[in-house]
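User: Okay, second chain of the day. Same drill as before: sequence in, structure tokens out.
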Amino acid sequence: MSLYKARKLILQNGWKPHPVYIGEHIGVEHELLKKGFKEIEVCTEGKSFCTFNYKKQQQCLRLITIGEEIKNMYVESWDMECEQGIDETK
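Assistant: Same drill. Structure tokens below.
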């Protein structure tokens, strides 16, 4: 499933973007942020895996995508693991 389709379904089902990375985003990460993907955690080089995080109440959803260009990214895997995240109330 494409990243765009998966994200649309995730958000429609009540999940919220959960930012967890507070460092500098570069490359694909920077492009994702510019397109509104504030849930991006990190992207690797080479095979270009990216990690996205979502929360719904006390549940977590982590999405792993593969692809070098945003329009061609698709879901490689997902799990229900949590990262600490950023306190957005500050």
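The helical segments are 3-12, 28-34.

User: Thanks, on to the next one.
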